């Protein structure tokens, strides 16, 4: 009898963990991703703000799975899933049969009906997004140094981040430090420290997934660093010249979008309706209703949790679902029954600049330098690849000791949009 | 009296060295470059072959000169030089007056009348070139893994390097190692070691600037690594499907151009005729005939050396000219006379893969592992920035010990041209 074929779509935290968890199972695993690398997304903002290089947080998928004999890696994009014939079709026309399918294609940033904002307010999900945002931030300082018009110079030195979740908070802190520390003596005409960093959040507080007290600490920490935090009103207009919010016009040439994500088009491939954020509803065993061969996990899945909330779209949740799906497939093949998925929430972390972080481990809550050390240790620990851990640690130590960020390269075009 | 203005075009080895050498001079220095970083070009092939990240060999120019109070850095492209009015015009319309001008804009790859070859056979001069070549090499292996047609697979696994100078030799060695070592167990359908690496040189031997004996050693070292060396006939056609050479058609989907360079368009800006390779002829004091305020240095200049030859287009020569131009300007301002430039040739180095190099220091000639260590030490020593030295050493040690190359990221598009 042929071994069952498990096809996994997406090599993010969920998909990769599913593949690795099947290493000893008597199945053939095919892992498909649009990129040739697994990306450690939680540190992507440090690529966008010139502390890390792309290679520090990205590892070739083939190299992770090179010794897993039952796993095969394919670079390709999914265009369709045939759930009756049980095949996946790729963009190069290839059709791959599956016995079990794990959909783990993640999320992308969403503009909630304002797709025209994307060119002026890029989001941060992929490596190319990060190098593009890095390019825009660094170019804004260069153009400000060259500007002769005072208003133009001010707009070039104004950086608006839309969205007060972890990514928005981390970007605001990092841009503020870049301006105040790393670039300090680099320019002759402008003072980089005069740059304004404005963080806009539509809701009443930053980090809505954290306890209120930590939101307040985060706000005051950012304000101490010079970040202007604007709560309680959403951006109503974004153009290449600035952002409108609550009737106020903020002239700014650099806008970063961190306000929301929507699931990848998995619902469409599966012939289903997604929820408002495009997520696919799954049962307690993470499979589709009436189709126990198809698992949907990670940011793509809408999984009930507690108090009417869904399991959050964070890396540990995706990994747990990946492990669960692998175990469930093994059990099913062995003819055993499968217990429902149970999400174990470890906590929330976010960093604010180079010396502070907020941590919510339920009973344990921390802010300040100790929290920052815990945050750093956790991220180093979960980085894949010994090499990457060493490199990231060295880059951080270097940036910490010298206040410099080493990766201040403007690659690609040297004109602003 | 206002301090004289020295405008330097280009922050390569020559221009940067000129700027630094003027640090204590009573002048105002303006250094203009199209990029915001100084690039250590001798190691660019290691970015193209996935050993180093761009940030390892590139340092922001502002950060190099941040403490040099008399120096100002401008990100911009030159479009014209007015030698009568003594101004330089930039692409953003700015016009900069100069008292002394140092033109150090380097060279770019040249296709000698075959500009249509550029899209299929990219050269290696800039960071974006290197990440593009890296993308093509890695994608070729991915596409070969997916290919169903045997001829297509063979063409995808054939890598042609055109040009047998140091860059061509280094690229051929590095691609061969990537295929034979780093990718060894990464694929399931193809054997990366079955890849063919073909190095084409129109002349009778590799490394024509080296003694004949070292050329022969280089050829046999490359052949031992599995590289096919084809001498004595130039490529006559390059398409996306392959290369024609001496009547033979080589089906190949990846072609790298290392066959020649021409000077940047400095001759045009200066209103002069360049030589065949676009270089500007200068006198023994590196200035233009009849215009002692304009220096041309580095790869842009045609400077007589010995035996009717020109000073070679290598980093040490550019640096020596940069120092000379700075000293000459200081002497001229002080009303002193200026001795002619004298090039001091230290030697030639090239590496062949991870354990061998060829070195020609005139009386001392070396090949093999010791030469490789000398090559590595020299390159680490001349890298700018303490951080970069450490990082490059660590990446090399990692690659050496594990046989892996860490930067195997396909960024940008995932389709081949």
Task: Choose one word for the global shape of chain A.
Answer: elongated
Helix proportion of chain A: 25-40%
Strand content of chain A: 15-25%
Number of strands of chain A: 25
Major beta sheet of chain A, specifics? 6 strands, mixed
Structural class of chain A: alpha/beta
Oligomer: homodimer
Instruction: State the strand order across the main sheet of chain A.
Output: 5-2-1-9-21-20
> Total helix count of chain A?
11
Compute the average pLDDT of chain A.
Answer: 92
Poorly predicted residue ranges of chain A: none
Q: What is the radius of gyration of chain A computed over CA atoms, rounded to a whole number of angstroms?
A: 22 Å
The greatest interface here is: A-B, 50 and 50 residues
Q: N- to C-terminal separation of chain A? A: 58 Å
In short:
The structure is a homodimer of 417-residue chains. With 417 residues, the first copy, chain A, is of the alpha/beta class. In chain A, helix 1 packs parallel to helix 9 and helix 4 runs antiparallel to helix 5.
Structure description:
The structure is a homodimer of 417-residue chains. By secondary structure, the first copy, chain A, is an alpha/beta fold. Helices cover 31% and strands 25% of the residues of chain A. In chain A, strand 1 (5-9), helix 1 (13-21) and strand 2 (28-33) form a beta-alpha-beta unit. In chain A, helix 1 (13-21) packs parallel to helix 9 and helix 4 (127-146) packs antiparallel against helix 5. The relative contact order of chain A is 0.16. At the A-B interface, strand 5, helix 4 and helix 11 of A face strand 5, helix 4 and helix 11 of B.
């Amino acid at each position: 009898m042929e071994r069952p074929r498990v096809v996994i779509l997406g090599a993010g935290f969920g998909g990769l963990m599913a593949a690795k968890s099947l290493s000893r199972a008597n199945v053939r695993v095919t892992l498909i991703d649009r990129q040739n690398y697994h990306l450690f997304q939680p540190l992507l903002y440090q690529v966008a703000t010139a502390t890390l290089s792309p290679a520090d947080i990205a590892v070739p998928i083939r190299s992770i799975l090179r010794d897993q004999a039952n796993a095969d890696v394919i670079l390709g994009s999914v265009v369709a899933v045939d759930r009756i014939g049980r095949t996946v079709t790729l963009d190069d026309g290839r059709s791959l049969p599956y016995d079990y399918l794990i959909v783990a294609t993640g999320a992308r940033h969403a503009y909630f009906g304002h797709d025209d904002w994307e060119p002026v307010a890029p989001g941060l999900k992929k490596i190319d997004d990060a190098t593009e945002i890095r390019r825009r931030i660094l170019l804004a300082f260069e153009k400000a140094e060259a500007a002769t018009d005072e208003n133009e110079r001010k707009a070039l030195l104004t950086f608006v981040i839309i969205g007060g979740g972890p990514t928005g908070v981390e970007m605001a802190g990092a841009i503020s430090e870049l301006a105040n520390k790393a670039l300090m003596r680099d320019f002759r005409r402008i003072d980089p420290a005069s740059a304004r960093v404005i963080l806009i959040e539509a809701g009443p507080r930053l980090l809505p997934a954290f306890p209120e007290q930590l939101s307040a600490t985060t706000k005051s920490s950012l304000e101490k660093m010079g970040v202007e935090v604007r709560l309680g009103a959403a951006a109503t207009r974004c153009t290449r010249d600035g952002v409108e919010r609550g009737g106020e016009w903020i002239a700014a040439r650099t806008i970063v979008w961190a306000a929301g994500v929507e699931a990848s088009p998995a619902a469409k491939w599966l012939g289903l309706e997604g929820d408002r954020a495009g997520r696919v509803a799954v049962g307690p065993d993470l499979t589709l209703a009436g189709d126990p061969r198809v698992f949907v996990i990670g940011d793509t899945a809408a999984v009930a949790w507690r108090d009417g909330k869904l399991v959050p779209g964070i890396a540990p949740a995706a990994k747990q679902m990946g492990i669960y799906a692998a175990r469930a497939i093994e059990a099913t093949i062995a003819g055993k029954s499968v217990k429902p998925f149970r999400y174990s929430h470890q906590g929330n972390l976010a960093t604010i600049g180079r010396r502070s972080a907020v941590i919510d481990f339920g009973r344990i809550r921390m802010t300040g330098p100790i929290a920052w050390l815990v945050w750093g240790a956790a991220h180093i620990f979960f980085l894949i690849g010994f090499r990457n851990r060493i490199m990231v640690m060295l880059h951080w130590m270097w940036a910490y000791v010298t206040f410099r960020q080493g990766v201040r390269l403007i690659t690609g075009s040297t004109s602003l949009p």
